[in-house]
Amino acid sequence: MNDSTNADRPGVDRPGPVPSGEAAPAAAAGAGAPDDAVRAELSRLRDSIDNIDAAVIHMLAERFKCTQQVGHLKAAHKMPPADPAREARQIARLRLLAENAKLDPSFAEKFLNFIIAEVIRHHETIART
Fold first, then answer.
1. Other residues' Cβ atoms within 10 Å of the Cβ of residue 126
2. What pLDDT is recorded for position 14?
């Protein structure tokens, strides 16, 4: 079966296309619609996912409020927008946290690199103003 399903993304009810040579999921193969208990469990799980997504957005917003203050402090003291040593320490720390949380450390690193790039962009903008 296809490993990259969209079932945990809001508004997406079906897995992605099934590669040729693989069996289609039972529901797609005409086995009938899920019963009420399955629909209720799916709804409960999706509600939890939606709540977690909201919490992640709020946490990111708080994080960026702090990094904006860091950007202003760096600009006021003519410090560079990026701090490669700190970034490397943070990546190592987050990889370990991810591993302990049973999350793919590579994913955690990519996620943090994405955030770091945005923070640096903000710091560069602050330094120019």
1. 19
2. 43
